[in-house]
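User: Run a structure prediction on this.
Assistant: Running it now.
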Amino acid sequence: MIRKTGKKGKLLRIWKIVALAAIAASGSAPVMAEDLPSMGEESSPWKTDVFYENDTHVRGKDHTGRSIGLSKFRNTLQIESDKGLGDGWAFHSVLRGTWDGVYQMNDSKFGDKAGGAIQLENIGGPAGAPPFASSAPTVPWGGGVNGASPFVGLGFNSTNPNAPNYNPNQGLEVLGASWHNTNGGVAFGVPVRPCDTDSRGCADFGGYGNLKKSELESPEFN
């Protein structure tokens, strides 16, 4: 960004430069050097500052008793550059980028290996399995009582990758199970891997909800 530090005649000078640039682009008239910022003896040396920050978070056990571990490892690098150009003009630049390594360093919770096979409650199903109470009847994702899927005829296929509408029991979490007991309530299976690994459920909700791992790691560079 280039700006003029003095206030006097600021708008007049800006419009003058814009007009001269338009004339030069059209080839109608030459641009006079004295109307542009000076880069000569009046200009000051470059001043550059570099800032680095690491933000690391670790999370303990959730409601299911599992330890989450590393939940954020965000590294921020910011470079600020300033230079006086003479004649009241100055150059100022701010470049910033981040990289969060949690999606690779803890990929079993947030990356390509997050989630897994899940059980959902079914009042007619067999005995339960964690994260539900032992008395809660559960069935595998996409399954039903005695292995018969309640979704037969509805286009749900959790077992055959070669058949249409394949929706496997992998890379999933029971929605809300990490925070509270879903025993006796309505539970949903949700995919939790980055969208370039598992695109199920991915939709653009205005800047989130449909992101690849690289976009989660470094949003400024995507």
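The first strand starts at residue 2 and ends at 4.
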